[in-house]
Amino acid sequence: MESFICTACGTQFAPSDAVPPCCPICEDERQFIPETGQGWTTLAALGRTHLTAFRDEAGLIGIGDSPGFAINQRALLVPTPAGNILWDCIALVEPAAVKIIQALGGLTAIAISHPHYYTTMLEWSLAFGNVPIHLHAADRAWVMNPGPAIRFWEGDTQSIGPGLTLIRCGGHFSGGQLLHWAEGAQGKGAILAGDLLQVVADRRHLGFMRSYPNFIPLGAAAIREIEAVVSPWDFDAIYGAFWNRNLPSGAKQVFGTSIARHLAWLEKLSGFTD
After folding, report:
1. Residues with Cβ < 8 Å from 247, sequence gap 6 or more?
2. Which residues have a Cβ under 8 Å from the Cβ of 138 and sit 6 or more positions away?
């Protein structure tokens, strides 16, 4: 049996004799099924057409598929005194990349912002000795390939190591989680955000959406919840989901400015002003 991978979102499904009948993640309004229809591949096939790219990402090591695959996010390797954490995942897991990461100290855990980046998370865990994968329980239904390495947590925050705290911020997904890295940004603190806090093209603002490809914004209540959850934390940097989409400094001010801008436009579009 094969564990088929959706070519539109990169999600790996549980082993089966035939391709899955559909991809629930792509059928959801936050993602999409391509005009050419649902497509499938396997890890072995992906390894014949793609390589793993490593780049510097504002002081962290970024890991991505080359050429880009599916949503084309990149992962990040976060160093800590207790070992490296893999933040978010990419679809390709190849021996050469595993050897490079092992030479850098291996992995002690994996944490993923939201279901669009779950991809081949069990394969990543297995490659490093079945390290735990930390996901919020509110997104349990979006796990297409369950396994014992997955550790679901509940509540608002969860420590996964010294100076590493998962923060449930919701928004894009109910269980959407950020990673607060206390030692990031030279000790000023950093947030690894995936695209829950989307670093936009001008690198001076953040975007907040329910669906990026389908242009569905988040409403005021969701934005205010994100503001309430994130504001108490100290941070100077934000790492986004894609290559070079980072705010190396001044990120807390950018966060506040971007929240205010989003709320102001919601009020203008609704014709309502406080």
Report:
1. 199, 203, 237, 238, 240, 254
2. 154, 168, 170, 173, 174, 175
Q: What angle do CA 52, 56, 61 make, to 5 degrees?
A: 65
Sign of the alpha-carbon dihedral angle for 139, 221, 169, 218: positive
Which amino acid would we find at residue 41?
Answer: T
Give the pLDDT score at 96. 96
Q: Are strands 216-217 and 209-211 parallel, antiparallel or unpaired?
A: antiparallel
Determine the 3-state secondary structure of 50 from DSSP. coil
| pTM flag (> 0.90) | yes
Do residues 195 and 246 touch, judged by C-beta distance below 8 A? no
Q: How many domains does the chain have?
A: 1
How buried is 232 (Cβ within 10 angstroms: 0-12 exposed, 13-18 middle, 19+ buried)? exposed
Average pLDDT of the chain? 96
Residue 138: CATH number of its domain: 3.60.15.10
Give pLDDT tens digits for 75-123. 999 999 889 999 999 999 999 999 999 999 999 999 999 999 999 999 9
pLDDT at 94: 96
Q: Let me know: does 58 contact 237? Beta carbons within 8 Å.
A: yes
Measured CA to CA, the distance from residue 132 to residue 92 in angstroms comes to 19
